[in-house]
Amino acid sequence: MITAIGGIGSLPVSTTVNKTAPASSASGADFGQVLTQVASDAVNALKGGEAAAIGGVSGTQSAQDVVQAVMNAEQALQTAVAVRDKLVAAYQEITRMQI
Q1: I need a surface site. Which of 33, 68, 75, 99 has the fewest CB within 10 A?
Q2: Residue 10, in any domain of the structure
C-alpha cells in the first residue's frame, strides 16, 4: 500500500533568485556564429554519412559503422530543416507586422 506524503508544508521555501549573465556574453558567441557552427557541423555529418556509405559499399567499413554514420547524418539534416523552417516562419511573421 502507498503511504501518504506528509510534512511538505514544513519545508523551507526559497524566495531568492540567482541572477546570472546572459549566455551570449558568457560564451562570447553571438547568434550568427552559433548558426554558422551548427550548419558546419551538419555539413560535416552529411559528408561523414556519405563517406561511410561509400565505405560500406566498397567493403572497408562495417555495417554498424555505416548505419551509425547515416543515422547521424539523417539527424543533422532533420535538425537543419527544422531550424530553417523556424527561421522562415519568424521572417514571415516579421514581414506581416504593421509599422
Answers
A1: 99
A2: no
Is 6 part of any domain? no
10 Å CB burial of residue 55 (0-12, 13-18, 19+) is middle
Is position 34 within any domain? yes
Overall number of domains in the chain: 1
Give residue-wise pLDDT tens across range 54-67.
Answer: 999 999 999 999 99
**Which domain covers residue 69, as residue numbers?**
29-96
> Is the distance from CB of 76 to CB of 46 less than 8 angstroms?
yes
Pull the grid cell for residue 80. Answer: 537543419
Is 23 among the domain residues? no
Using 50 as the pLDDT threshold, list the residues of the chain that sit under it: 1-2, 4-5, 7-8, 24
